[in-house]
Batch of 3 targets.
Target 1
Amino acid sequence: MKSEKAKKRLGILISGSGTNLQAIIDRSESGDLHAEVVCVISNKAEAFGLERARKHGIAAIHLDHRSCSGRGEYDAALVTTLQELHVDLVILAGFMRIVTPVLLDAFPNRVMNIHPALLPSFPGLDAQKQALEYGAKLSGCTVHFVDAGTDTGPIILQSAVPVLEDDTVASLSERIHHEEHKLYPAAIQLFAEGRLKVEGRRVLIS
């Protein structure tokens, strides 16, 4: 039986097509995820994820980073918008900007990200390419809370995929994306159920 508590309110930040966004919307609308997407914000007006949001009646907001003097000012504008919409959890889904303490301090342990590697291996950009060049036999994806470092925040969930001998960046990315679309909603559901507790570097799941 599903909880009768109010659904957690999600604010999703994107810069591109928003395939993880779509997976989260689909799980929410099916009732498998006890959370609702109340806004999608992009720093790029042409991001297809904004169109995905509009198709589902979700507030689609373009907030141009070029209109701000720096990262801190931009994140302050994000915080204002997110707080006005009473967002409980901020989701980074292909948001190609480094967030600052301005956002993190406003939402402590309430900013999530997904990374296409098994952290702490291969942080930063081009993680799939890094894995192939290193000769890794396993790759995958990681959902973590965001901290001030680059992909260094406490790990919530991970899913592994094999790296095949004939893999390219594209083929490996496709298999990782398939796992991401399952893993991210699962991590959000744990948050919605109040089952995540951060203790130092670790996330405990009750």
Target 2
Amino acid sequence: MPIAGTISILITSNALKGKMRYCTLVAAGASIADFIYVFISVFGLTKLYSFYKPFIPYVLFGGAIFLFFIGYKTVKTKLGLENIDEKNYISKKIKKERGGFWTGLILNFLNPTLFMGWLTSSFFVISLITSLGFNTGGLEILMGQNIQQINKTGGNNINSQNTISYFQVDTVNTTLQQIHRENNARLPNYFPFLVSICYAFFLSLGGIMWFYFLARFLVKYRTKFNLKVMNRVIQILGIVLCLFGVFLVYTVIKMII
């Protein structure tokens, strides 16, 4: 459940406007970017990071500009009595809402920090599952190697030593490691690729489901809120999006310096 973040704010603000279709498309587009980042971080294509790293500041700057644009449009939004009705509002805006998919995709894709987030969180989840005795096909070892590879490129964005030590020494005992090695020896070579695809797919699917039900809930009960309060909430969410853009600019400046 990606509770916090730019996509959550974007979907919340548009759900309060009654744009259910737009929210669904944003969630679908964002999930594509999540799928790509999760698969890359899990399967071990982190060697590409050394080639991608020099362009990260420019990508983040592009993401900041995009966030400012969306935030500005959100702040300027003002709902009136004529568009508070969900069906009437959606029927008038149906053509404009088709761009929601690309908005979600671009917004997530222009945030390379998601790659780091998914790398560390996936390592935590997979290592935890392994510690409970489930066979992950050696993905917990692969994830640890991926994190070490990222740190070797000079990124220094992931402080993994304590986490790796905790799961490999304290949680996953010697007996379990022996069992995993024996089980992994019987698995086909394509197993890590298959598990990575499944993990990334279902994680993305879970994100879509969460945003879909969140949007439905907000769209259904948005008429219960006072119109002035709803406009104020939407404007605040737009300001928060702009602040995310400021943070990305700060991150770019810090990386360049």
Target 3
Amino acid sequence: MDNPRPEKVAVVTEVQEKLASAEAAIITEYRGMTVAQMSGLRRQLRDQGGEYCVYKNTLVRIAANNLELQLDELLVGPTAIAFVGTKPDGSAGDIAGVAKALRGFTRDVPALIIKGGVLGSRTISADDARALADMPSREQVLAQLAGLLEAPLSQLAGLLDAPLRDIAYAVQALVDKQGGEAAA
């Protein structure tokens, strides 16, 4: 672009910053979607830490090339990008949650097509983006990890408690056998 307008330079800079700072970005085609559908999708993505933006392909291509990302084959037709950043509460966005929201939305609105995206600094295909939706959410992974850490500790507590419990059962059985109550 020879002598680009300041507005275009600002958009390229914005896209470049979002691509660089986002954990992931999923590129979609939104042809045929209504404004209400776009608003609903934006709301769903915001809850997962996603931001859904529409940019001109040429400006996104320039920003991606500046970051040495190869997105040219994905930037065909009307394109929107779901950036994974932070949730409204300030916590980290959920890549799997954003991918699940997009995949779920494609079931209701077939006009939305997932083309691929960027994960970190690596370009991913549409199949890879769909596979992200099959991953457990961050909260599920943390819960599973907590369960893995808690299980051995529970077993250890049970093992340490077993001899005392066995002695108590033996004393109670002896008392029951003699037909009386245990002396204090």
